[in-house]
Amino acid sequence: MNKKALALLGLGHLMVDLNTGALPALLPFLKTSFGLSYAMTGVLVLVANVTSSVIQPLFGYMSDRSAQAWLLPFGVVAATCGMASVGLVTSYPALLVVVFVSGIGIASYHPEAYKTAYLSTGEKKATGISLFSVGGNLGLGLGPLAVAFCLTTFGQGGLLLFWIPGILVGVLFMRALPWLSQTRPTLTDAAPATAAIPRSALALVLSIVTLGACVHAGMSTYVPLYLADQGGDTLKVGSVLSLFLIAGAIGTLLGGPLSDHIGHKRFLVYCTGLLCPLISLFLQTNGTTSIVILGLAGMCLAPMFSVTLVIAQGLMRGRLGITAGLMTGLGIGVGGLGVAVLGVAADMWGLATTMQCIALLPLLPWILVWFLPNDAPHAVEPTPALQSAAGKSA
After folding, report:
1. Do residues 333 and 166 touch, judged by C-beta distance below 8 A?
2. Which of 73, 80, 90, 233 could form a disulfide with 173 if both were Cys (CB 3.0 to 4.6 A apart)?
3. Rounded to whole angstroms, what are the CA distances from 288 to 131, 183, 391?
């Protein structure tokens, strides 16, 4: 396992997803400052999801065609510049533009990073991908805390502080590109002989990811608004959302080795099956109890994305970039479309009813998980050159 490459890629993942995690925590502030309706707030999240996720397969296709290592520093810097620039905007259209720019950065980073990380993991795929993914989960979790600190300390302009770590990590990637590229296999090494893709199984995995993403985006978007309606201030809302997302990072870190041990399908049955009762309990409790339950829900929800990605990469056999784009991009992006629908529902029937709908949504991916193949095919193994590099860094 190439720990050096995974550490750097995980750091970039943290920085990119820090900006992703920042937006949900910003929503209560933006809704008040710009006078947004729930539907307009949902559209804002929709723009973020479409640009950061739906177009990821395009970048994945580019990554599979040839090495595109420049996407790594570009993605970090563009994601940061866009979100930091929220500190400058004064209108809703301008807000949509800077969110769009941030989304492009996020979309460009993930396929190339997932491809490089996957080929650096060795034999325990779910464990390696989970180690890389946990950087993104931590970024999602730290984003709300960073937003809460910037807003409470400096106001809207304090978001410009996001530029500093983004530029620093972008420069670090630029300096690391020569040795990072040496740990990557060539295109011919990474692509084995073409095999028939089991399209029904792939569509099933993509459906599970999409529905799971709808639950995750719904929780990340509407839990802050739900807590704000109950009287929570900016710091409290940001802290609770960070807890939910950081709990997801812990779940991802633990879930990878566990799923490698007990089987990917069995792991997904367990973690998706617990979501519905946990979210329902969160809505029926308050205080410390509700926060603990929300954290447990985060631990069950987040790991399913890294595990389903490993399953999908096994099915796609060598098309690692476009697989990452489909799963973490298209699947999560289409799942994010549900946020806009939930926003309309919140305007019509109230936020409490919308949260009840979110609590029931996990039943759908849980049912689909039972139809997954019991044993997914193994994906392409790293090349000898990559294994050698991994051995040196282990």
Report:
1. no
2. 73
3. 29, 46, 45
**Residue whose pair of structure tokens reads 């099933």 in the numeric block:** 204
Pick from 361, 368, 210: nearest CA to 280: 361
Other CB atoms within 10 A of residue 200 CB: 10
Can you read off the two tokens belonging to residue 189? Answer: 């090494």
Torsion of CA 105, 110, 115, 119, to 10 degrees: 110
Q: Give the number of other CB atoms < 10 A from CB of residue 230.
A: 11
Query: At residue 393, does pLDDT exceed 60?
Result: no
Q: Which residue has the tokens 């301008």?
A: 94
Mean residue pLDDT across the chain: 80
DSSP string computed for 302-366: THHHHHHHHHHHHHHTS-HHHHHIIIIIIIHHHHHHHHHHHHHHHHHH-HHHHHHHHHHTTHHHH
State yes or no: pLDDT of 276 exceeds 90.
yes
Which tokens hold the place of 150? 């910037």
